[in-house]
Structures are given as structure tokens and as C-alpha cells.
Design a protein that fits this description.
The protein has 397 residues and is of the alpha/beta class. Helices cover 28% and strands 31% of the residues. It starts with 10 loop residues before the first helix and ends in a 10-residue tail after the last strand. 31% of the residues are buried.
Amino acid sequence: MNGRKMKLPKLSTILIAISLILGLILRTPALIITGCGGFVLESFPRLYAKWGRQALHHRAYFSQSYAWPGDSVKLTVELENRSFLPISLLQLWHDVSHHTQVVGVPPAVGGALRQLEHAFRLGMWQRVRRRYTVVCERRGVAKLGPTEIKVTGPLGYGSAYSKRTDETEITIYPRVHALDALRVVPSTLLGPTTLQSFIHEDPLRIRGVREYRPGDPLNRINWKATARAARHMVHVHEPSASREVLFLLNLSSSDVVWFRQDARETEWAIEVVASLGMSLLDGACSVGVLANDYITDVPSSAGPEQMHSFLAALAGTTQFAMVRPSTFLVNALERRHFGTTLVLVTPMLTEELLSAVQLFTLRRVPLRVVYTGSTPSALFDDTSMVWVQKEESEIVP
């Protein structure tokens, strides 16, 4: 049965009703007064709690919209009683995402859902704020909510419940590793002409500002930014031409799709894409990413906004591969724009996958293969592929 369960009346409610009915039948004032008084005492706390719930304003927010794994952010829970009636007891339960850990809140046991609990007493027109420290543990879109609210009437009698489905979220980027730790150089990965296309800058297109470095021309100094930052800042110009790169992220670590893969292999592949993409974006390349989960799809572009879009898409990438790797490659070939270099990042190598790679060679489409598996593969060819093994590396937030 999917509907709500029928609530049985309380014993006190039954006794009050009997007293009132007998008083009316027997015409006994004492019973009538007792029934009416009991009805008022029974109903008033519930109405009081319902009124307090409607007059309650609730808001929860993080101190920032994105973070890196290991960062600590502030969570603020704000409650306001917009009524002249005080609330004697207010309880809230927030569902907490498994991507974060609230300092002071014990972790959930097993796979149970973690909850953040509050208890308040609000006077009339009173506003209360509570702040918590939240540690971002791993990549993902961390959410706080839905929220269950319980308002209790005076002296603990009567209560009103409500559930709010609005959620507060923060995007936790994937870990980004230094290229020295990955032992990968973008110029060798994408070909010898990768960096030649954006050596010359366009002086008419200003990209942003950065701190002054020895050797920068003095006519590039941005005096307004220098005054605000209290140190010399210079203009950064857009490149006259840029290389367009599209990462093809294979989330499957086996030939079976529609199945949860090895989480460690998948996470490492995502971190490799994030690290290489960040390096290329810093080098003024246009970078995008496409994964076989039907969710991650960011067209190639450049600039500071693209950096956020690129990392946010990888933060929301699932660990479910919905398309076979070979089919995913063929579909990506059809969507490729002219002049785009494709980089396949995969935690597995199979004959079927390499057959699809050969199709790119036949069509003279530039495709680089980055293998991120933890174990050696007999199909790995060091002349045309790059193997990025997982090691302890420095996190560059």
C-alpha cells in the first residue's frame, strides 16, 4: 500500500470525545466543561506547532560553491522565527552527502545515511545561525538535504512535521596532480606541434591578469589591478591561434557495461584527465571532455570559465559506463570537429578497443591513447601509447 497509513486517535482524544458526548446526552455541565477544556488543551498545542512551522524561515549554505579534496569549508544553517509566538522546541535533520564529513558529527555505520541534527529554541522574531566545519573528502557534488523539520508545542504537547526537498550543494573537484609526478609532457603527448600554435599572442584580446614576472614588458602592466592587489599585475593576452583537444574518457574497466566498475581504476582515470586538461588550459589550449556515461559532455573551449566547466563536469562524472568503449570511440569520431586532437584515456585495453583505434588511423584522425591501468597489458604499445601509473603524487589545488 503506497498511501499514507491511517493514524489512530490517541487515548486522550477518545476520552475527551466520550466525556463531551456523555455531557451532551446527560446534560451534565461538568462533563461538557471537561470535554471542551480537554479539547482546547488537546488542539491548541498542535495548532500552535503548525503555526510555528509556517512562520519558520530556514536556509543553509556553504561558504563557497566549489572546493578541492581535503579542503575545509564552512556550512551555515540559519533559522528565523517570523512570528510573535515563540517556538519552544525546534528540531531539524539534514541528510549529509557521503562526499563530505561534518566535523563533530560521527560517521554513519556501514551504508547508512549520515544526518546532521539540530535542536533550537526560538523566541519571537528571533534569528539563529549555527556554523559547522565541513571537510571535503572526495570528488563529487556534495549535497545537504532534504531537510526534516519538527516543531513541538508548549510544554512538549503537540507537534508538526514538514519535509523540505530543497538542497544545498558544493562541487568538489577531482584531484589534480603535477605533471612531473605523472611523468607526462603535453607536447610529447599531443605531438611536436602542440605548443607552436599559441606561441604568438594577440595584443588586442586580453584574457585576464597575472602577477608580474621578470622579463615582462612594462607596457603590459595593469595599473588598476596593481593598485587593488598591492603588487605589480600584467595583462595576459589570448593566443593568436590555439590547439583544440577533446579528452575521451572511458569509464569502463571491463567489457561489461551497465555495471559498476572498479572505483579505483575509474577515479584514477578521471584524475589523469583533470591533470592533463588543467595543464593544457594553462597553455592556452581549447580543452573539452566526453565520457561514456551519458552525463559528462563539455565542448572544447578555453579561458577561466572553461576551467571551471571542465572540472565541474569531471566532478559530476559517474562510475557507470553506459556504452561499450568501442562504440563510444566510433560515436566520438563522428562528432569530432575538424582540427581537434582526440585523447583517449582508458583504464583497460582490449582487442575490440584497439580495432576502433585503428579506424582513427585509417581516417588520418589524430588520436593519442593514454593507458591508466594499474597492471601491465600485453596490448600496450609504448611507441604509440602513454602509460600513466598511479603513484603518490602532489596535489595541486
